[in-house]
Amino acid sequence: MMLMEVTYENKPDDIAAILHGLPWADRLRDYRHTLKVLLAVWPLAVLFVILSEWFLLACLLGVVVVCALLLSILYWRAWASIGKTAKVIPGPQTLRLWDDYLELTAERGGSRRSWNKVPRVQNMPEHVVIYIQKMRAYVIPKRYFSTPEQAEAFATKAQSLRTQGIETQSPLIDWEAFRSDMQLDQFRLIEHLKWDPNPELYARLITLGINADGKNMVPTIWGLIKQLILPIILTLLLIVLRYQVGINTDVFYYLLLIMTSTFLLVFGLQWHSHVQFLKELLVQQDVTRPDEAWFYEEGIATLTEEGVGFSRWSILDQVTDDWEAIVIYDTMPYIYLAIPKTALPDPEKQSALFERLKQCTDIAHDREEEIVLAEVTDNPFQSPRT
């Protein structure tokens, strides 16, 4: 039974108000993540300390400080302009509070989410915020309620339903009912795919980005150990030259020092990528990602244990081809869906599906690009001949 509903429309200022209302730990999360890349120079710092190259160490620390200041300026400028740049779903949206789930409907899609999968409900002075993930939320401006009392009642009811859902374990969302209510059967189905959850895939994509040719892989411990062998040998040679032979101003010494520093910097960057991947993997193991999707010419429907959703192509950003998956971005760099290519083993069908989905996004965004689909015999993704 539906209990309450509100129809509203967001502006960038609404999103900015919510972001500025986040705890400092959440607001600085991306900032800290960006700054950590500067820690990749730690092998160089160790080398300079071992060789007593204090001037070079001071220069290195100076570069790190300057880079940290520049990153800080860029970060705070981004926060200052977020009221103008924040992406919002255009047009009116209707949020409904049902007994068993939270429902959002809009011209560009809709979703239903079980109450026990709603992380938080926040009642702010000017907004009611219902979080669907740690950093994603429905932001309802209170100006769209008839009276302040209605806004307070809406926030109170949402919090009550969330608490009740956690205590009693809300039932799973009915996919068939959602498909019928959203009239998805009227759309042309391109493909229906189901796959096993793969947090490692999302962790790699978030850490290293798209890897089209399969060469930019996550560094392994064994690979890092092998990568460190040559720098260790060169470091021992530098120690002998400096402390045993007494050569520390010779051209050969500094050429060797430059070579060793380069190897250690590369090692530091690889070590940073490995550590960030492991941290992101822990995060992704706690995130529920879609493992079943219906691809239509009009949009994508997804199903998880948290709920169901449908998004039209016009609200999604782009489709990108990775060596391991077809990746669909919500707003760069946020991943909406990563489809493992193991779900569609035939390479020709993988390529054809990628081209078809890319064509759908291009058409939805009115991009004037010529899309040529691969000619694959009996390919269900191929456009009809004209």
Strand order of the largest sheet: 1-2-3-4-11-10-9-8
Structural class: alpha+beta
Oligomer: single chain
Compute the separation of the termini in Å. Answer: 47 Å
Short description:
This protein has 386 residues and is an alpha+beta fold. Helix content is 45%, strand content 20%.
What is the element layout, followed by pairings?
Elements: E1 2-8, H1 12-20, H2 24-27, H3 29-35, H4 42-50, H5 54-80, H6 82-85, E2 93-98, E3 101-106, E4 109-114, E5 120-123, E6 127-133, E7 136-141, H7 148-168, H8 175-181, E8 189-194, H9 199-208, H10 221-245, H11 251-284, E9 292-296, E10 299-303, E11 307-312, E12 318-321, E13 325-329, E14 335-340, H12 347-364
Antiparallel strand pairs: 1-2, 2-3, 3-4, 4-11, 5-6, 6-7, 8-9, 9-10, 10-11, 12-13, 13-14
Helix pairs in contact: 4-5, 4-11, 9-11, 10-11
Structure description:
It is a single chain. The protein has 386 residues and is α+β, with helices and mostly antiparallel strands. It folds into 3 domains: 1-171, Roll (PH-domain like), CATH 2.30.29; 186-195 and 289-364, PH-domain like (Roll), CATH 2.30.29; 198-274, no CATH class. Helix content is 45%, strand content 20%. It is built from 12 helices and 14 strands. The strands form 3 sheets. An 8-stranded antiparallel beta sheet has the order 1-2-3-4-11-10-9-8. It has a 3-stranded antiparallel beta sheet with strand order 5-6-7, sandwiched between helices. The protein has a 3-stranded antiparallel beta sheet with strand order 12-13-14, with helices on both faces. A hairpin with a 2-residue loop joins strand 6 (127-133) and strand 7. Helix 4 (42-50) runs antiparallel to helix 5 (54-80) and helix 9 crosses helix 11 (251-284). The chain is elongated, with a radius of gyration of 26 Å. Mean pLDDT is 87; it is low at 368-386.
